[in-house]
Amino acid sequence: MSIFQCIECKALHSLVVDEREGTVVCKKCGRIQIDKLIDDGPEWRNLTEEDGSRDQDPCRIGAPNNELLSDKGLCTVISKHETHYGLARWAQRSMSSSQDKTLSMTFSEIDDFCHILCLSDSISEEAKKIFRVLFLKKVTKGKSHIGILSAIIYCLCRKYGNKIPLKEILNINKITKNEIVRCYNTVKIHAPEAAINREDFSLFAKLAINFDFSNEMVTKCAQAMKKIKDCNLMVNEEEMALACAISLMVSWMSGKENLYPEDLRKTSGISEDDIRKCYRKLFLKRFFIFNGLGDKWSIATVANF
């Protein structure tokens, strides 16, 4: 792989990387230009089950961190081998709390549920985060466990536009419609990010494609739009102009301070004056609308266009 000019013979495109030795060498004069290159690849060759060496895998990196567990999945796991099976069992009991065990079992149920419905991994991960929030708030006590999971999945399907009928979810989990309605109202109150209107979410998702918004930023925009509609605020404003103003404010709240009304004008087709006018009205009510969607300092220091 040629990279630059040799410092000895001045030949162009004559340098190659010797990955085995970790050096950069000129293939014409043999001069070593750089030595001790750092290899970012794996430490060893990862052996698979087809090699007949499942129990002799030398890979030492382990599983990725799990942000949904209290210890982030960093605890030591002892292999359940015949010689120390009892030690592994007692170690697992001592290191895993009852809360982590409940969450782990529920996460497995969510994975199975999403697999049956052919849902994406992103919906599965978001469902786990929402259930963890409800579980830590102790909202799930006294409620149907399967009903809460069904309500969360149903909310996320509506949010992302998956056309899965409610009857299919009811038939899979063997629950009644009244039961899932009660759980749906609970999820809607304690996890409003799951019960966002699909039309609002898709509206901001279209704007996010052009400005590299994260999924969290799109969710905040949709939550702000939902709060404005529920409280009958700014009823005379055009929906697209209001969406542009909300996107602009969330962008500055999140630290992306390179977005301006003229950029949104090119994407949305709304005039720059209308966006500025709507933004100034939103600016006066920003502490009420964005309460809980960001820290007070970021809300207070957004720009006023």
Automatic annotation (TrEMBL):
Highest rank taxon of the organism: Eukaryota
Pfam families: TFIIB (PF00382), Zn_Ribbon_TF (PF08271)
Residues covered by the Transcription factor TFIIB cyclin-like domain: 100-188
Name the record gives this protein: General transcription factor TFIIB
Molecular function GO labels: TBP-class protein binding
Organism listed in the record: Blepharisma stoltei
Gene Ontology BP annotations: transcription preinitiation complex assembly
Signal peptide range: none
Residue span(s) of domain TFIIB-type: 4-45
InterPro entries with a match to the protein in the record: Cyclin-like_sf (IPR036915), TFIIB (IPR000812), TFIIB_cyclin (IPR013150), Znf_TFIIB (IPR013137)
CC annotations in GO: nucleus; transcription preinitiation complex
Keywords: Repeat, Transcription, Transcription regulation
